[in-house]
Structure prediction request, 113 residues.
Amino acid sequence: QVQLEESGGGLVQAGGSLRLSCTTSVSINDMAWYRQRPGKPREPIATINVNGRTNYGDSVKGRFTISRDNAKNTVYLQMSNLKPEDTAVYYCNAPYERYLHAWGQGTQVTVSS
Prediction:
């Protein structure tokens, strides 16, 4: 059973920044950050493959940066210029439906205007 643990969320004013971390119990080739806004379905917003290649959803491109430290089995999400619409629970997991693991608890990000 693969364990996923997110951390780093919190309360921040619009325009602020946060750095999220995701630790995994085993090495995972490709990882993604997801978020679930209030009343909306969970959606992927950033992906990174084993070699560090990244991709971003349009809603976060230019503001968020995904990175990883394979030696630590950790994936990061640097979030800048946060907006109220970024308020969500943020999760990490595999970027492909067929490779999804059990979801972790997620970490809450709340952005005030």
